[in-house]
Amino acid sequence: MREPDPRDSSPLAADERTSLVVRRTVHAPVERVFAAWTQPARLREWWGPEPITCPEAEVDLRVGGRYRIANRYADGTIVWISGEFERIEAPHTLVYTWSLAPGPAMSSRVTVRFNSEGGATEVVVHHEQLPDAGIRDMHDQGWQGCLDGLAAYFDRRP
């Protein structure tokens, strides 16, 4: 994604400043990757960029259903990520809202696509409607770390 010119006030430039896309190929079939993303017991095993862990996760996987994920930092602080599922096309697409507590008052949207590549899956995360470039960059690091954890999870479970 190109770095936008801050003087450009077009809608596309504003969207680029407040959106991110990260992708990773995971060595597992699309159905298993979708399950790892949506089943709380599996999600707790890989979620979070190191050193964050996920001691608790709840997922009501239906349109209008809610999810809640605990991010425990090394100092013991827990930040909750929560939101509502807007679209579910198992095992290929999830769209959901995203908010943090405690954290900046914001609500954003995440679209996750799971693209089958033979026996592997390309996971594409598009996180949009972030309030500014600083928060976008923080989430970019977080998503990169989460996808590292997801890939490692499947590397341990061929």
Please give a structural write-up.
- The protein is of the alpha+beta class and about 160 residues long.
- It has 4 helices and 7 strands.
- It has helices spanning about 10-15, 30-40, 40-45, 135-155, and strands spanning about 20-25, 55-60, 65-70, 80-90, 95-100, 110-115, 120-130.
- The radius of gyration is 16 Å and the shape is globular.
- The termini are far apart.
Biggest sheet, spatial arrangement of strands: 1-7-6-5-4-3-2
Strand content: 35-45%
Helical run tally: 4
So, CATH architecture? 2-Layer Sandwich
Question: How many β-strand stretches?
Answer: 7
Features:
disordered N terminus; 4 helices; alpha+beta; Alpha-D-Glucose-1,6-Bisphosphate, Chain A, domain 4; 30% helix; 158 residues; seven-stranded antiparallel β-sheet
Topology of helices and strands:
Blueprint: H1 11-17, E1 20-26, H2 30-38, H3 40-46, E2 57-59, E3 66-72, E4 78-89, E5 93-101, E6 108-117, E7 120-128, H4 133-156
Antiparallel strand pairs: 1-7, 2-3, 3-4, 4-5, 5-6, 6-7
Helix pairs in contact: 2-3
Provide a short characterization of the protein structure.
By secondary structure, the protein is of the alpha+beta class.
